[in-house]
Amino acid sequence: MTAQIDILAPLIPRLPPRDHHFAHDLVRKGRKWGLSDKQAEWVGKLIDKANNHPPLPVERKVVDVGNFQGAIDLFRKAAEYLKHPKVRLQFQADASAPKQAIRLAVAGPKAKVPGSINVGTDAPYGEAVWFGRIHPDGRFEQATRPEVPEALVQLLKAFAERPAETAAEYGRLTGHCCFCDRHLQDARSTAVGYGPHCAKRWQLPW
Fold first, then answer.
1. Contact call for residues 171 and 178 (beta carbons, < 8 A)
2. Single pTM value for the model
3. Same-domain check for residues 132 and 87
C-alpha cells in the first residue's frame, strides 16, 4: 500500500483541481495510519485518473504591444488586392544571436481567433515557429514555447506605432521586399523597402 501512495503523491498536480484535497488527504492518512480497503480502492482510481487525464492548459503570457489599429488598417488596405497579405520584419534576440525574420499575417474567418495577427518565423508551412497572436486591441498572446524574446516584443511595439515604416526597414536591411519577399532589383525599391507593385497593393508611396 505504501508503494501505491508513493505513486499517487507526485501525480496529484495532474489531477483536476477538485480532486487535489481528497488525494492529499489519502496520501497523508495512508502514510500515517494505512488505508482501508475502500480508501485503497480510491487511491487506485486516482492514479488511473491522473495517468489518463489530459494535461491542464497552460496559461499564455499576454503583453500589451500598443495600439494596433494602424497595422490593421494597413492589412485591410492590402486585402483589397491580396488574398493573404503578409508583412515581414526582422529582429535580433541579443548581440550574439543571428538576425531572425518573422512573418505577420491576419488570421482568417475559420481560425481560432479570426482577425488576430499571427506572428511566426518566415518559413514554409509546417516548418514555421509560432510566437503568438496579436489581438485587435493590442494584446500579444504569446506561445507557451518557444519563449518569446523581449527584442521581438519591442519590434512589435515599433510596428504598432509606425507599421509601414517599420516593415520597410526589413526591405532596406535585407534587400528583399517586406511584403512579398522578392529581391529588390533597383536602388529606389531598396531605399524604400518594397517594390512598385507592392506599393500599389498596400496603397503606400513609392
1. yes
2. 0.71
3. yes
Please indicate, yes or no, whether residues 147 and 86 belong to a single structural domain of this protein.
yes
Q: Do 182 and 140 sit in the same domain of this protein? A: yes
Grid coordinates belonging to 71: 497595422
- Residue 60, amino acid: R
Is residue 102 one of the residues assigned to a domain? Answer: yes
CA distances from 25 to 5, 15, 20, 22, 104 (A): 11, 14, 9, 5, 50
Q: What residue numbers bound the domain in which 159 lies?
A: 62-201
Q: Are strands 117-121 and 62-64 parallel, antiparallel or unpaired?
A: unpaired
The pLDDT tens digits of the residues spanning 76-111 come to 999 999 999 999 999 999 889 999 999 999 999 988
Percent of the chain whose pLDDT exceeds 90: 68
Residue with cell 505577420: 104
